[in-house]
Amino acid sequence: MQRIGIGIDIGGTSVKMGLFQEDGELLYKWEVPSRKEEAGRYILEDVAASILSVLKEKDINMDSVIGAGLGVPGPVLPDGYVGVCVNLGWRDINPRQELSRMLGGLPVLSGNDANVAALGEMWKGGGKGYSDIVMITLGTGVGGGVIINEKITAGKHGLAGEIGHIHIRDEEQEVCNCGGRGCVEQVASATGIAREARRKLAAVDTPSRLREFGAQVTAKHVLDAAKAGDGLALEVVETVGRYLGLLLAQLSMTIDPQMFVIGGGVSKAGRFLIDVIEKYYVEFTPISEDKAVIGLAKLGNDAGIYGAAKLILG
Amino acid sequence: MQRIGIGIDIGGTSVKMGLFQEDGELLYKWEVPSRKEEAGRYILEDVAASILSVLKEKDINMDSVIGAGLGVPGPVLPDGYVGVCVNLGWRDINPRQELSRMLGGLPVLSGNDANVAALGEMWKGGGKGYSDIVMITLGTGVGGGVIINEKITAGKHGLAGEIGHIHIRDEEQEVCNCGGRGCVEQVASATGIAREARRKLAAVDTPSRLREFGAQVTAKHVLDAAKAGDGLALEVVETVGRYLGLLLAQLSMTIDPQMFVIGGGVSKAGRFLIDVIEKYYVEFTPISEDKAVIGLAKLGNDAGIYGAAKLILG
């Protein structure tokens, strides 16, 4: 009998789910909307109902399901407890326990969504073949996940991998969402890159193709212009790459992974961006000739379901 | 039959050794000089001979020895290989394998000395009762060790825990021993604190009891003067505490330990210094109300033999 693991990635808009073979082959994936009304109370019920319905439709017996893994968009304590999950409206809940109950006692394990995505990338994505990676997701914000010996390092207060909120830039004056100032996210997220470009456009009057976008300039505009050789855009990319290279150096001298996997929308700039990050990473790690590999994520939006399945498939 | 583990801590001047019960009680400790001539080739022989002699003297049969743990003052790869150990003159050696051979095949495990000391502090020192700690040793340099789930995080290139060489201060102009600039060690080691004081004494002409020491000012002078309320010394301590608080915040948002254990000569300043570090640690972690505990190391120079014994006692 073929045995199955279920990967579930709960997001603020939709819940992605997948059925996986034990060897990690994705058999089927689907999604349902995240119903956030009434403090998100229907989300897990919807997930459970949808899983039971898909298993029935696929003629898969519950006996052949090993269990389910669950990625949660917020801090998760070691026992699965979630104090607050702002994105879903959840408070004071143990989603792992609740979903297990709704699925007739099926084993369910859970983790923070960014950590779970990192596990997925290690298993079947950009970090395949490595056991120790840090994933850095450059999207609207900056997320991260630390994998050591093929396991998520979740931390004791649900904070591990929150590398987007490491203070890295002393001169930053604006306040970050987290309440701090000078966070990695403020300079290296898509939002941060766009802001950096706006600041530079306002500060100097050198010609730049970015001027036509004015206040509407995006990270993609910046990266595309930089690739095309635009001087001002290149300066922005150097700034972003410097802080990311510094971050990677800090991470190397803390946990020393084999590889850094860069994902998220900003990473679509590809090797061009990685090369700038790597230049500064090398500059900030004179202590050793042996460097970690820096590469791109490969699973895109599926990283979460892969990682969630890996949680339960072990 | 009482079973024994041996803890060995190799330093640049002497090798410390201890016999431990399985429960971690230290039965006997002693040391031998580190013979560094001829690229340190006699060090392990001396250690093996000394262990055999002490076991004989104590009438302990080799059958009751579980094994030995070994702390090495340099980078150690996962299989025990040491490429270069500047402090001892070693090159291209696997000390764990060699010592095992010299002790008739006794199981020997090894690790970097700072990492091993961190394990010792977790087991029986300032971090007792916790499974996830980071130890920060403020001595002539700044060392560190990362313990997750009661195990050393050694990293894949022997760099994990090298937190003294994290770049933290952009405006630093002097070059660190590692070849970088603005390392934690340059501001928070005993040497760094003294330099910071010299710089401040030169930069301003406010009265300070530190002036009498001139270029001979030490970290201890600074910390003592700060405790006594000396304004200039207090400013130096604020600078040091700010960068250490920032370092701890970075570590929390990477691996999120339960506790930070502060050791080394500088930590003799005690709670006074911890309070300043903690103030800035809180400032740099607005993301969460849940903070790690910050406390003092307790085992002093014995941390290494405790940790080495724990390596082999598991």
Could you walk me through the main structural features you see in this protein, from its secondary elements to its overall organization?
Two copies of one chain form a homodimer. With 314 residues, the first copy, chain A, is an alpha/beta fold. Helices cover 36% and strands 22% of the residues of chain A. Chain A is built from ten helices and twelve strands. Chain A has helices at 37-40, 43-57, 95-102, 113-124, 184-188, 190-203, 219-227, 231-252, 271-283, 303-313, and strands at residues 4-10, 14-21, 26-33, 65-72, 82-85, 90-93, 108-112, 133-138, 142-148, 151-152, 259-263, 293-296. In chain A, strands 3-2-1-4-7 form a five-stranded mixed sheet. The first copy, chain A, has a five-stranded mixed sheet with strand order 10-9-8-11-12, sandwiched between helices. The longest helix of chain A is centred in the last third of the chain and has 22 residues, at 231-252. The radius of gyration of chain A is 20 Å and the shape is globular. The interface between A and B is large, with 41 and 41 residues.
